[in-house]
Amino acid sequence: MTNSTRTLGTTSPLTVSSLGLGCMGMSEFYGAPDEAAGIATIHRALDLGITFLDTADMYGPFTNEQLVGKAIAGRRDEVQLATKFGNERLPDGTRLGVNGSPDYVRRACDASLQRLGVDHIDLYYQHRVDKTVPIEDTLGAMKELVEAGKVRHLGLSEASAETIRRAHAVHPVTALQTEYSLFTRDLEDAILPTLRELGIGLVPYSPLGRGLLTGAITDTPAEGDSRATAYFPRFQGDNLVTNLALVDKVRELATQHGCTPGQLALAWVLAQGEDVVPIPGTKRVAYLEENAAARDITLSADDLAALDAAVPRDAVAGDRYGDMSTIDA
Question: Catalytic annotation on 59?
Answer without folding.
Answer: yes
